[in-house]
Structure formats: C-alpha cells, structure tokens
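agent> Task received from the user: take the single chain below, predict its 3D structure, and emit structure tokens. No templates, no multimer pairing.
agent> Plan: (1) validate residues, (2) run structure prediction, (3) serialize to tokens, (4) report one or two observations.
agent> Step 1 OK, no nonstandard residues flagged.
tool_call: predict_structure(input=
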Amino acid sequence: MPKIYDILIIGGGPAGLSAGLYASRSRLSVLVIEKGKFGGQATTTAELENYPGSIENCTGPALTERMKKQAEDFGTEFVKDEVQSVDFSGDIKVVNCLRETYQGKAVIIATGANPKPGGFKNEQNLRGKGVSYCAVCDADFFEGLDVAVVGGGDSAITEAIYLTKFAETVTVIHRRDALRAVKSLQEKAFKNPKIKFIWNSTVEEAKGDEILESLVLKNKITGELSELPVNGVFVFVGLIPITEVFEGKVTLDDKGYIPTDEEMRTNVPGVFAAGDVRVKTLRQVITASADGAIAATAAEKYINEKFNK
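)
tool_result: status=success, residues=309
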C-alpha cells in the first residue's frame, strides 16, 4: 500500500524548503517534490544582500542549500520528479508524477514562477546563443564583451550590477524614463562606470545567425529604430506562475497566480499555496520563506482538525 504523507510539498524553492522545515519540526511526515534544482529561482541569484541576517556575500545557492539541509535534518524527504496531474477532490490528495504517484493529507503548492520572455523577434531562436534570463548562470560566457539588460526593476538592476564583474559594458534598456528598482540599487547602478542606460525603449528584434550580434531598439516616444551591437542580452521583465497543472483544480487569477488567504489556504480544503506562485505584492526569498512557514503551520492545524478528531 502506498505511503500517505501528512504533507506533500510541490516545489523545492525557498517557500517549499521553509514549509518542509516547519512541518518536519512538528513531527509531520513530509515529501518535497521538485523537478529541477532545489532552491528554485533563488539559485540564480548571485547576491542576497537583502535577506535579513545572512552572512556577508551570501549567495542564493548557498542559502537555499542550508535551507534544504535544515529541513533534511528534521526528517523532510526529497524526490526529483515532475507533476503530471493532481486530484484534490478527496480527503487524501493525489499527485501523479512521471516516476510515481504520491498521496498526502494536505498539499502545499510552491511551484514558483519562471522568467517572462521579452517578446521580441528571434528571442527563442537565439536563446542560449546570447539571449539569457539568468546572469548568475551565464555571466562568465561574456567576459570582456558588451551586453544588455532588459528591465528596470530590482532583478534587472541587481543582475546588471553583477554583470559588470564580467562584461566590458552593460546597457540597461528600459521602457520607461525612470527605474522601478529600490533607491539603493539605483544609486549603485548610476555610480557604476560600466553601466549605461537607454530610456523609453523596447527591444524589437535580436539579430545574429548562430549567436547574438545586435538588438534592434524602438524609442516609444519617437518611434525611431536603432541598432545596439551586443554579444548578450539578459531579460528581466517579470514572471509567469507555474500553475498549468493546477488549472481547474484550484482557483487561479487572470494571470495564473493562486489566490490565498492569510493562512495560505486556497479555495480547496487541505490545499495551500506559498511563495511566488500565489497572489502577492512582493516576491522575494524572505516573503517566500515566510509563506512556507505559515502554510506548514496552517496545514498542520488542518490535519489535526480533519484527521485527528
């Protein structure tokens, strides 16, 4: 007879790892299911200077590895598998994956979100050939070369600053006339001699045969087209929640995010959501971690009331 876990956690980023830690410390049986890297989007972050109490020069991979070790030490189990379908209709929730089917009394959805494409011509053709969505992953390929960053938020400016350690120049292309990043990041970027800015502009096309050679830009005010020679472009224009498999199983908003209450409960009893996948105003490692802790605590309460009467 297959094992029935107390909690199945789908996704092994900061939200899932935090949920695993809190649930396991409460002596619940917990399985974290992750199809990719444990640590999620945080593993693509070079510096986590805004995570309270983190060590100097803390990196995303280092922090999430410690999170995973903590959860493991309290008994959280981990498996690499990919969810194909779910059945949340019964008291026991069923998660069907490529390798196995898993069952649990409660589920925490912590699948996160993927980087949103820039939407310009030839983007997909040149993906991995100069078009990237992860500076930490790919920056060293552009040592001494000219690169561009598309976006104006915290992620875009953080990655632009990181890229200056490798690239000769970093040109930030932003569709507005002012950055959205926090002031401290803006100040760092404006002071960095390697970073240039092109305002009120969008990328229309990536040009190159086998590798990226230039970007065609369009000025949103004048409509003028120009060409920027670069060897790489890093796109940071938002996120797309990873929720396709949950369509029709839990309520999603018009952008695909999962609405929850303050205890991370979805519209389905026994199913919770935490981290970047849910409707929220701030998507950071600290808020994902907090969501995970709350979801685990709420799930424990649900299990006690539902199954331990």
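agent> Step 4: summary for the user.
Residues 285-307 form the longest helix (23 residues).
agent> Done.
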